[in-house]
Write the structure tokens for this entry.
Amino acid sequence: MPQTILTLPTRGQGLYEFTDQAEAFVSATGEEGLLTVFVRHTSCSLLIQENADPDVRTDLLSFFRRLVPPASDPSMGWIVHRDEGLDDMPAHIKAALTQVSIGIPVARGRLMLGTWQGLYLFEHRDRPHRREIVLHLSP
């Protein structure tokens, strides 16, 4: 069963597309099955989202900032975990609301994504990180 680990550098909060890297991985196998995509962190997540209009990413970021503001916001005074910065616990909350694993069907060495769908790492922290994403293709 083919497997690899992608390392994606981030520059702070945002959506980072890695569809091309996942496509290259499954294309090299030429196999069919289910691609499991798993991110090995607790303060970022994964999304399948539209990749045609960048306004979608802008609106998603704005929505999640409004839904879960930084710990410095007065509405977040109840947060106890602050050891790693004011963005850390909000990042964990955002990751809990989204997903850290996605399954995508693969046919003839191609991801069966829709026309406008792309794979994204959703970074929830303010500072840059190097995120690891496991790609595992099962028959």
